[in-house]
Amino acid sequence: MKYIFLILSTLQFFLITSAGADCHKCNFDNKNLANLKFKDQDLSYASFKGAYLVNTDFSRANLQGAIFDDAYANGALFIGAQLNNSSFKNAELELANFKNASMKNVTFDGAYLVHANLSKKQVLESKFCENVVADAMKFSGLCEK
User: For the stretch 30-43, what's the b/e string if a residue is b when 16 or more beta carbons lie within 10 angstroms of its beta carbon?
Assistant: First the structure.
């Protein structure tokens, strides 16, 4: 009986992440979602706290208000995503790609963003400079007062 439940719960998760179903306010806390594709999905206000998101593709997804606190998202793709009012506190975002993403009022407190792809406009619109680890980034000078 335990195995049937596991198979059914895995199938349900597979359908949510693979069939293009939107997942508004879904909880993915502490899940391993590496290499999955969430392209063009509505994941607004979803929670990814502590999730393993290496190379996960969020291109063009609606992630407004999403929480990525303590997530491990090295190499994640946020190309063209809507990230307004999202949080990446203490997130690991090395080599993450935010090209053309909307990032107004995004929080990066304590985030590790070495070699992440961000534009100057995105840095200035977000709450980038609050305790961010930005060594070797071309924008680290923007945070100096």
Answer: ebebbebbbeebbb
